[in-house]
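Re: your question about GDP-D-glucose phosphorylase 1

S., sorry for the slow reply, the queue was backed up all week. Below is exactly what I fed in.
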Amino acid sequence: MDDEEPVAPFHGGGGPPATAGGDDGKARRKPSFSSSDTHLLPRSLPELHKLEETTRRKRRSGRHSISEARSSWAITAGSFGNGRWGSHRRFGRRPQVPERRRHLDKERIPSTHGGRGALPSAGGSPSDLLFLAGGGLGRMMILKRIPTVLSNYQEAAEPRRCGRNCLGKCCLPISKLPLYAFNGDANPRNSSFGVDETPPDFFLNSLLLAQWEDRMSRGLFRYDVTACETKVIPGEYGFIAQLNEGRHLKKRPTEFLIDRVLQPFDPAKFNFTKVGQEEVLLCFGAGEGGKACFLESAPVGEDNSPNVVAINVSPIEYGHVLLIPLVLDHLPQRIDPDSFLLALHMAVEAGSPYFRLGYNSLGAFATINHLHFQAYFLSMPFPVERAPTQRVPIAKGLLCHGGVKISLLLNYPVRGLVYEGGTSLKDLSDVVSKSCMCLQENNIPFNVLISDSGWRIFLFPQCYAEKQALGEVSEEILETRVNPAVWEISGHMVLKRKKDFEEATEQYAWRLLAEVSLSEARFKEVKDYIFGAIGLEESKKENIKLEEKKETSFQSSAPIVRATCNLAEGCLVLQ
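Result:
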């Protein structure tokens, strides 16, 4: 062993199953033991050490023939007493080490496939804890891993994986993930409490936070969002500023044209099927037969394309996640009725006014052309939620769409429409999704904010990228490198320079967002497109009074004070 490349001390045989041909593609002769050979098997670690020492002495004295060396195998790992054996090591001449040989080390996370070295919770034997804790042999060894065979057809039955445990068709269909199934037939209305009231305890709310914190403790995020400083900008609306100097440095580049809202899915570009399953929190979908339940480990299945909730590895706030509908269907970034209804159900199931979902179209600062929504917790109102609105009068005799109310956003730097109410969640979803589809088909970029536990939706047509391409955005705004997507438009400003954070004012926030907004004439034209698409006609009467905002102004730029609620401590990132 002195002339061999050392590896870390052995502590288990976890890892992906070895192929039948070995790492170099050549056939390997495997050891075979008959019932008469059982007396040769070591039953304890002292016996194992003794067997190895005997073999070494034979090699040094020359009494170990080449043929004997080639056929001599020593058991180097096992679940002693239960007859299951793990990795093997061949003694004799120095083995030819393939270039792709994998090393084991103490820092390596145990595999999750349930083989040797897996935690008991992941399907491993309790005796594996001996090796995970650094037990077993304390000497440097070279290992050849083999899978625990549970069936004669095991290798043939399992399709080849990519080895990354990803969300693609190579890995996901044969995986097991947590499943949250909601009652799709129910129509709960959990928005009866205001933003300053303590919400009830909802299971999805607690589950998301617990899972997200677990991924944070495992170091899966690109930076520590809890170290980002946040404050309320003094002024009438209380814009929220966050200093996030790491986000733009480690963000994936945009890989599509920014002047086309609808573009086909390109599997060659980054998409969410390439995400590792360790980033997945759970699957989310309607329960069979209208039944709600939660399963800690549910098989995905060959014919299923699950809705996946995964962490955003470049988070803006506490609990920042992605909702990816039908991940295996390779849907491009475009709204459809089913996916939008799914997003509303997630907001309803979370049941917290502090949990909002957002959507960015292509051309409105979506950076990945694979259908997804974003969501996070912020334990205070967004400034746009405080803004006054004015109900749009609808001409009589037209379909009322289940009582959905549509209002204009007033006295806010970005013009938009507000949808709320309705007799059912589906009625509300249908109206909003048709509005979004109209914008998509007319190549108008837009952003969507889902608030009030799914029962209030803000739609913002925008033109910032177009103005930027035409050179119509002021140099002062461009220097900040702020991309006004849904969170910024809603009033949560993510700033990348300390200078901008320290000097942020309400006037600055207003100027930035004003660059996003359509002109009054263009907005009216777009509104008419939308109303035509959903079968509504605006009445000429303007007798609907202004609905005032609920909150008063902020007067301090001090760090934000935590809201009193039963969310886990730290729902709002503070300094």
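The chain has two domains: 35-157, 176-547. The chain has a mean pLDDT of 73.

Happy to talk it through on Thursday.
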